[in-house]
């Protein structure tokens, strides 16, 4: 399964990028911007991690109903919008906005690194083999 590999990789990249960015923001612009950056990065990275988990769950054979997945997706969207609104209101808005960008970068870079890793390639090959087996089984019926 590829999703756990991607989640680990995205999390690692997000920690490095968000903590590093917050330290730089704190050193250059003060604590308020650093806290905003960290909060924005955390919201954005958590949203991306949630999406990776949800899509991985939906693609599993025998996964729950698609209606339930749509409810989860809608709930995630509402939670992210609420957290973004709170983050903009309670922290430095510029720092929060830059943090959102850093979180998106973390998700993209982490996913790329995860799928290119040995564990990611092994998971892809295993999923491809399972898909081929299911196709052969369905053709033989």
Task: Give a brief rundown of this model.
The protein is mostly helical and 141 residues long. It has five helices and no strands. The radius of gyration is 18 Å and the shape is elongated.
What level of helicity do the residues show?
Answer: over 70%
- Classify the beta-strand content into a percent band: under 5%
Contiguous low-pLDDT stretches (5 residues minimum) are none
Oligomer: single chain
- Please provide the count of β strands: 0
Total number of helical segments? 5
What is the string of helix and strand elements? HHHHH
What about the largest sheet?
none
SS-based class: mainly alpha
Give the N-terminus to C-terminus distance in angstroms.
26 Å
- Overall form: elongated
Alpha carbon gyration radius: 18 Å
Average per-residue pLDDT, rounded, comes to: 92
Q: In words, what does this structure look like?
A:
The protein has helices at residues 2-29, 31-58, 66-90, 93-116, 118-140. The chain is mainly α and 141 residues long.
């Amino acid at each position: 399964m590829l999703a756990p590999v991607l989640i680990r990789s995205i999390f690692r990249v997000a920690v490095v990028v968000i903590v590093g960015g917050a330290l730089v923001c704190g050193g250059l612009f003060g604590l308020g911007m650093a806290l905003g950056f960290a909060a924005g990065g955390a919201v954005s990275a958590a949203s991306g991690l949630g999406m990776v988990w949800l899509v991985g769950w939906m693609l599993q054979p025998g996964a729950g109903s698609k209606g339930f997945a749509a409810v989860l997706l809608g709930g995630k969207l509402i939670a992210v919008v609420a957290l973004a609104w709170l983050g903009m209101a309670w922290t430095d808005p510029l720092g929060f906005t830059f943090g959102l960008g850093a979180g998106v970068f973390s998700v993209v870079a982490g996913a790329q690194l995860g799928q290119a890793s040995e564990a990611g390639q092994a998971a892809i090959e295993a999923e491809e083999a399972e898909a081929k087996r299911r196709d052969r089984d369905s053709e033989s019926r």
